Amino acid sequence: MASLGERSDVGRFESWQRLGGALRARGDQLLVFVVLIAIWQALSMTLGTYWIGSPWGVLTRFVTGAFTGDLLHQASYTVIEAALGFVLGAVPAIALPFALRRLPIATAILDPFMVGGYGAPKLALAPLFILWFGIGIESKIALVAVTVFFIVYFSTQAGIRALDPKLVQMAQVMGANERDVLRHIVFPGAVPYIFTGLRIAMPYSIGGAVIAELISANRGLGYLIQLGAMNFDTTGVFVALAATTCIVFLGNFSVNVLEARLLRWRPVQDVTLQAGT
């Protein structure tokens, strides 16, 4: 058997190996980022800043807008709409598959309607939400909630269906009741699927809010994009898009941190370094 010192050396080697892999991944990501910026700059120089704002011009306008507070003020509306819609869509989307877990007939009845709702173009619903809820924040929240709901619902349902029935039977043989099975077997098994759905739905929530603002709004990042397009201000459009991208990164980072915290029980090799992705 390996001695304690040998096991410690192996552990340190694996830690350094994981750290080296993470650093190489970050280096590759930085390289790709530099290449994209170079392509962007080349296109801006070739076509002119009238058509494609330069990276430096976008950065300058972005920093100026952040310091004056105008960009942050507009972005705050988009974040509020996306966050509220995300929560209102994700919570029932997680709860419903658990409620239907022992109701196969009800699940079979609802499945075609869920598939239809998932496939329906959400952008087409925006005019209806504006008609029903007005041009304020409520219509944007409704569009985001509907978009998020179906993504998280099907992901959670896939996690529950992927559960090995033998685990449930074994727990029941050992005397576990339905609550114990749900808490200690079904939910932990579905959590990775739930977070997969949340991670996919996060960018859609931001995008849904921006699209709704493009259709009808007098504030938010979508409004800035529309305003820039109307004034032929491509730099302003790129600034709003850059702000949207930053929000998506922050939202994805938050979901990954929460996932890493809730999945501490999983082996290290099964959990990617989410906080850095």
Provide a compact summary of the structure.
The protein has 277 residues and is mainly α. It is 81% helix and 0% strand.
Give the distance, in angstroms, between the N- and C-terminal Cα atoms: 38 Å
Q: Which parts are unreliable, with pLDDT below 50 for 5 consecutive residues or more?
A: 269-277
Q: How many β-strand runs? A: 0
How much is the average pLDDT? 82
| Distinct helical segment count | 10
Main sheet?
none
Please, what is the oligomeric state?
Answer: single chain
Class from secondary-structure proportions: mainly alpha
Fold and architecture overview:
This protein has ten helices and no strands. The chain has 277 residues and is an all-alpha fold. Helix 2 packs across helix 10, helix 8 packs parallel to helix 9 and helix 8 packs antiparallel against helix 10. The longest helix is centred in the first third of the chain and has 44 residues. The two termini are 38 Å apart.
